[in-house]
Design goal:
Helix content: 55-70%
Strand content: under 5%
Strand order of the largest sheet: 1-2
Order of helices and strands: HEEHH
């Protein structure tokens, strides 16, 4: 009985020490705002509807590439749906018909995955789709601990 009581006392002491040190001794840290440089990028081959001049911001270029890749995924999904439909219509074997149906299902699933990922990111926070490559690396600042002087 005394072993259980001492275990409980030791556990309560350790728990209260941890909680005290975490909640009452912790210091609030605030980030420092630094000026962000904008990097200019000269594309070798400009993407349509993304670059208006000779130089562009790398963020705009990557966002345009992201949108174009979603469009390419849509075109490839339509091609796979057509191939699956031709395979489904042109055969009498049940196995090949099932393969055609499976191609159509996978193409529609891939298209939905591409479009819904974009819509989900747009719904949660539109800034998630803005790729920011101009952030400087974090530079931690370490300060010396305070020196206590005896009176």
């Amino acid at each position: 009985m005394t072993k259980n009581l001492t275990k409980k006392i030791v556990f309560a002491t350790i728990l209260s020490t941890i909680l005290f040190s975490v909640f009452f001794v912790a210091k609030t840290v605030t980030p420092q705002v630094m000026a962000v440089e904008t990097f200019e990028y000269t594309p070798l081959s400009p993407l349509p509807h993304t670059t208006s001049g000779k130089t562009t911001n790398i963020n705009i270029y990557l966002l345009g590439m992201f949108k174009i890749l979603i469009g390419v995924a849509g075109v490839l999904a339509v091609i796979m749906i057509v191939i699956g439909g031709i395979q489904y219509m042109s055969t009498d074997a049940i196995g090949d018909k099932l393969d055609g149906k499976e191609k159509i299902k996978q193409a529609v699933g891939g298209l939905l995955l591409a479009v819904l990922s974009y819509l989900l990111l747009q719904t949660i926070n539109p800034n998630l789709l803005k790729i920011n490559a101009g952030l400087p690396p974090p530079q931690p600042q370490v300060s010396a601990p305070p020196v206590l002087q005896n009176p």
